[in-house]
Write a structure and sequence with these properties.
The complex is a heterodimer of chains A (301) and B (591).
Chain A (H helix, E strand, L loop, with lengths): L3 E12 L2 E12 L2 E7 L5 H8 L7 E6 L2 E2 L5 H5 L1 E4 L11 H11 L6 H8 L15 H14 L4 E5 L7 H17 L3 E5 L3 H7 L2 E6 L2 E6 L1 H7 E7 L13 E7 L2 E7 L5 H7 L4 E6 L2 H9 L9
Parallel strand pairs in A: 3-8, 3-9, 6-7, 7-8
Antiparallel strand pairs in A: 1-2, 1-4, 4-5, 9-10, 11-13, 11-14, 12-13
Chain B lengths: L1 H32 L7 H26 L2 H8 L5 H34 L6 H26 L5 H5 L4 H4 L5 H21 L11 H34 L13 H6 L2 H9 L5 H12 L2 E4 L19 E4 L4 E6 L4 E6 L5 E5 L10 E2 L4 E4 L2 E6 L4 E7 L11 E3 L2 E5 L3 E6 L14 E4 L7 E9 L2 E8 L10 E9 L4 E9 L5 H4 L1 H5 L1 H12 L17 H24 L4 H14 L1 H10 L6
Antiparallel strand pairs in B: 1-14, 2-3, 3-4, 4-5, 6-7, 7-8, 8-9, 10-11, 11-12, 12-13, 14-15, 15-16, 16-17
Helix pairs in contact in B: 1-4, 2-4, 2-5, 4-5, 5-8, 8-9, 9-18, 11-12, 16-17, 16-18, 17-18
Classes of the chains: A alpha/beta (301), B alpha+beta (591).
């Protein structure tokens, strides 16, 4: 059995002339929670569709639980849970009917406790139609179903949109418990960085279909530092600052967000006229934000 | 899987109940107004189109609700094979649709059977089954249209229209309809896979899709191509059907009045006898025998060429023919009470077709209902194996009766003298197959008849040879051909033979499919088409050229060697339509 839950080699997917995924090499080990973040259009949803065999790659290879994604069998799918951001469920069916179907499909591995833990946050009636549920209720029900099937690999695409604080907390608890106690692999895609920070063992950053980071969230955060410099004049030009992610000038003070800043960066700033230089760590959400928006940095001061 | 099936049944149960109630209400309404079992074929075709349309709408709605990527992933990403998911999902909608179509029909038939006011044949039960099959075919078509790639999905659906062109009768029609339904279900199965944008993954699925798409492309090229060509021709104002047709052509012959046509037929003869005939043609009345009927009743057919019933108004009885026992069954119009059966001595050769004047055509017999004694009498019986193929008509003092082998002229009093002789005054063997005969004109001479046979069916814009033959019938009843001329085709050689040079193999396949199970149809007898050598050469060159293009595309798309060879061989066999299918399907390397 492969030690990897997900493996892609040179994965490429083109939509016309645009590359949704561009020569992506990714290897996610079994177990743990792997967060995938990226701006809109980074290729996250395309990646999930290819992983589950619903989209064919233009090039490269993809393996899920050791099997080529285009050849997943019903038994493979039994071991893989997937929740999309729309929480797609049949709107005409009742809660009871959907639950009965799910329990029957996954009878050999149904985890009633995991289902009950998440569903406890919602006051659902078995006779209610799915179409009558609010977005949050539908999300909660869908997530409870996914956890109830006790998958080896659980792929969650923006799962917590629409959930209230209590439901979100219970879901995250259930995910952490499942990942640790059942050796489950969770692929978690979210724009909620505080969730990523709490959950993730690995932070994968995608940008324009390419892999930009693969590390623990703390390691990623440590790569990004904020520098505050009082430069009376214009300051160094941006193209002279490799690793510059963001630059803002607030009240005459320059704020630089740097990726992998050189040890002598403070001297560099002083060399360009800075009268004072301070450095400080940044929280993960700001680090991710700066990383993903580096191509949209403000004009040089 | 069963849970999924039940869920889909529940999803559509109220729709099915509503549609079934509406269907039953409409049937009941028409049942009060007319006899739904004795309508002409056109009515059944209209009803079948409604069933098919309902199926298509349901299929489009159901599959369309799953076709968006997230819905599709939610449906298929489960521990069931796509095939089992399809069976559950389509099985649910098919069950509801079949119930909405079949149950009201069965209730109607059972009601008639119990009450006895209207006669129910075994074939009528098949008619209900046929309605269900057509509705389910529509459902599969709708599902396929929603799920298949738009590049070629529409093309694959064209051959599914086969039941509208099929000549199959009775059980054979059920077999054809079932075959189309099964084929469409298999195509849906091949399209029902996680990646909807890709062609079928299995070799059998891909081959079935490619062959069906090629046939769709062929039909499109032949039918739509001809339509576009003729429309453009009409806009230039030189189309032979526009204004004055070309001299000596088929169109002129089909439009000419009888005298001009016979004169034109005699134009090649300058002898005195012909001159005398021409003078008589100008002075005499021309009789045009009604055209041959395309369809005649066949025992066990699902629909009716025309209503198979007539009323005896004097006795207040409606007689309805039963295919089961080949007798008429009487019902009193006032209260619906059964009044026994009506037969003819010797029995009916074939299901009778009521025509004008209280007469019936049944195989080789012309029969008449006598209102005085309430019996059916046989007026004419042709030799065994012959079938009357046109409505008898009077030509002066004669009655012209045309069979699939000969034109016979009788003393018109044969219709009145039921006990008298039915020996013909003259028998004129047909100079060609009856199915190719387009018109028949005759004049009464002082010493017999002059008959003009115009063979031009499929010869106007089709490939058949067209000609006219004049036959002289003497007063003693003997006949001999006296003139013959070839009618020149009005359409270009290239368009007349388009179905052949585009793809001879698909032309043969189309003809076989349309004629399968057709039963004894006299009008199917046609003059064999002579295909010129140049057409064969053109077809071969086009197929070779198409295969070369396939080879180039396969190389560009980096198709495997075996797959490339298979596509090239298929294109060599089927010609440009297969190239078209290949280009639209764009098989990938794994297929």
């Amino acid at each position: 059995m492969s030690g990897l839950a997900i493996e892609t080699r040179g994965l490429t997917r083109r939509h016309g002339r645009k590359h949704a995924l561009d020569n992506l090499d990714l290897a996610l080990p079994r177990g743990g929670i792997h967060a995938i973040v990226g701006a809109n259009g980074a290729g996250k949803s395309t990646l999930f569709r290819i992983l589950l065999g619903f989209l064919s790659p233009s090039g490269g290879e993809v393996f899920v639980l050791g099997r080529p994604s285009a050849a997943l069998t019903p038994d493979d799918r039994r071991r893989i849970g997937f929740v999309n951001e729309e929480h797609t469920l049949p709107g005409w069916a009742t809660v009871a009917a959907v639950l009965a179907m799910q329990r029957r499909l996954y009878a050999d591995r149904w985890d009633a406790r995991a289902f009950d833990t998440v569903i406890a946050s919602f006051d659902l009636s078995p006779a209610q139609r799915i179409g009558q549920l609010s977005r949050g209720e539908r999300a909660g029900f869908n997530l409870a179903l996914a956890l109830g099937q006790a998958p080896e690999l659980l792929i969650l695409d923006e799962p917590t949109l629409g959930l209230d604080v209590v439901a979100r907390r219970r879901l995250l608890d259930a995910l952490i418990e499942g990942a640790s106690a059942e050796d489950r692999t969770v692929i978690y895609c979210s724009h909620q960085i505080e969730e990523v920070e709490r959950l993730a063992d690995t932070l994968v950053v995608l940008e324009r279909g390419s892999l930009r980071n693969f590390s623990a969230p703390d390691d990623f955060r440590e790569r990004i530092t904020q520098w505050v410099a009082n430069v009376p004049f214009k300051g160094p030009p941006p193209d002279a600052m490799p690793g510059l992610l963001q630059h803002r000038k607030i009240d005459g003070v320059h704020h630089y967000m740097m990726l992998d800043a050189e040890p002598g960066f403070a001297d560099f700033l002083r060399g360009h006229g800075a009268t004072s230089v301070q450095t400080m760590p940044v929280p993960l959400d700001r680090a991710v934000d700066a990383f993903l928006t580096r191509n949209h940095a403000g004009p040089a001061a | 899987m069963f849970e999924l099936y039940k869920a889909e049944c529940r999803r559509f149960r109220w729709w099915a109940l509503g549609a079934g109630a509406l269907h039953a209400g409409i049937l009941l309404f028409f049942d009060r107004m007319v006899d739904p079992l004795q309508q002409p074929a056109m009515i059944y075709e209209l009803v079948a189109a409604i069933y098919a349309g309902a199926g298509v709408l349901l299929g489009l709605f159901q599959a369309g609700s799953y076709a968006r990527i997230n819905q599709w992933m939610a449906l298929l990403h489960r521990p069931l094979s796509p095939r089992r998911v399809l069976i559950a999902v389509a099985g649910g909608s098919a069950t509801m649709l079949a119930a909405a179509v079949l149950v009201p029909i069965l209730l109607l038939l059972i009601g008639h059977g119990l009450i006895g006011s209207r006669f129910v044949d075994a074939r009528h039960w098949l008619l209900g089954l046929s309605g269900m099959l057509i509705a389910l075919t529509g459902l599969m078509g709708g599902i396929y249209a929603a799920l298949s790639p738009r590049r070629y999905g529409w093309l694959v659906l064209i051959p599914a229209l086969l039941p509208t062109a099929s000549m199959a009768v009775g059980w054979a029609a059920i077999v054809v309809q079932t075959g189309v339904l099964v084929a469409l279900a298999l195509l849906v199965t091949s399209a029902f896979k996680p990646d909807l944008a890709e062609p079928p993954r299995t070799i059998t699925g891909l081959a079935g899709t490619a062959l069906t798409a090629a046939m769709g492309a062929y039909l499109l090229l032949v039918v739509a191509g001809d339509l576009v060509f003729q429309t453009l021709w009409i806009t230039t104002g030189t189309h032979p059907l526009n204004g004055v047709p070309p001299r000596g052509g088929v169109t002129e012959a089909t439009r000419a009045d009888g005298a001009a046509l016979i004169e034109a037929g005699l134009a090649g003869r300058q002898d005195n006898r012909a001159r005398l005939w021409r003078e008589q043609v100008r002075l005499s009345e021309i009789f045009e025998v009604p055209p041959t009927m395309k369809w005649l009743p066949v025992r066990g057919e699902l629909t009716n060429v025309a209503p198979m019933e007539f009323d005896d108004e004097r006795r207040g009885t409606r007689w309805t023919f039963s295919h089961d026992d080949m007798r008429f069954h009487g019902v009193r119009l006032s209260d619906g009470a059964a009044l026994g059966t009506l037969d003819v001595p010797g029995g009916f050769d074939a299901p009778p077709l009521p025509i004008e004047g209280g007469h019936l055509i049944a195989g080789g017999s012309l029969l008449g209902f006598d209102a005085d004694d309430g019996m059916i009498h046989r007026s004419i019986r042709l030799p065994a194996g012959e079938t009357i193929v046109a409505r008898p008509s009077t030509a002066g003092t004669a009655l012209a009766v045309m069979s699939d082998r000969a034109l016979r002229l009788y003393d018109v009093r044969v219709l009145d003298e039921s006990a008298g002789s039915d020996a013909p005054l003259a028998t004129v063997p047909l100079p060609g197959p009856v199915g190719s005969l387009m018109r028949l004109d005759l004049i009464e001479l002082l010493d017999g008849y002059l008959v003009s046979f115009t063979y031009a069916r499929d010869g106007v814009d089709g490939p058949a040879d067209a000609w006219q033959q004049i036959v002289h019938v003497t007063g003693a009843g003997t006949s001999r051909p006296v003139a013959r001329r070839t009618l020149t085709p009005d359409f270009p050689f290239v368009t007349r033979f388009a179905p052949y040079w585009i793809s001879p193999a698909l032309k043969v396949a189309r003809d076989l499919a349309e004629h399968a199970g057709s039963g004894p149809v006299p009008m199917a007898q046609r003059t064999p088409v002579k295909i010129p050598l140049s057409i064969w050469i053109a077809a071969g060159l086009l197929a070779a050229l198409s295969a070369a293009v396939v080879a180039l595309l396969a190389r560009r798309w980096r198709l495997g060697l075996r797959a490339s060879a298979a596509w090239m061989l298929a294109t060599l066999a089927l010609g440009p339509p297969m190239l078209f299918a290949f280009w639209l399907i764009r098989p990938n390397r794994t297929a």
